[in-house]
Amino acid sequence: MQKKVLIVDDAVFMRNMIRDIFASAGFQVVGEAANGLEAVEKFRELRPDLTTMDIVMPFKSGIEATREIVKIDPRAVVIMCSALGQEALVMEAIEAGASDFIVKPFKPEDVVAVVKKVLGEGC
Amino acid sequence: MNWDLSKYLALFVSESREHLDAFSAGLVRLEKAGGAGEDPAAGVDELFRHAHSLKGMAAAMQQEGIALVAHRAEDVIGAIRARGETPSPEVVDLLLAVTDALSEMVQEAGGGGQPAAPEELAGRLDAAAGVLRGAPALADEAPLAAPPARLSAAEKSPPVPARGRTRRLRVEVEVTESSPVPAVRGFLVLKRLEGSGPVVSSIPAAEELRAGRMPGRTLAVEIETDLAIPEVERTLAQIADLARIEVREVEEAAPAPVPPRPEGAGEPARTVRIRAEMLDEFLDVSGELLLATARLRELGRAMPEAGRRAHEEGVDRLQAIAKDLHGRVMTARMTPLTILTDRLPRAARDLARRTGKQVDVVVTGTGIEVDRALLDEISDPVLHLLRNAVDHGLETAAERIAAGKRPTGRVEVSARRERDRVILEVTDDGRGMDPDALRRSAVARGAIGAEAAAALPDPEALLLSCLPGVSTAGRVTDVSGRGVGMDAVKRSVEALSGTLAIQSTRGKGTRFTLRLPLTVAMQPVLLVRVGQEIVAIPVSKVYGAAQASMEGLDRAGGSPQLAFAGGHVPVHDLGELLGAGAAAPGVRRSIVITESDTGRVGLAVDQLLGQQEAVLKPLHSPLSLVPGLSAVTVLGNGRPVFVLDVPRLVAA
Question: How far is CA B529 from CA B298, B533, B553, in A?
Answer without folding.
Answer: 21, 6, 21
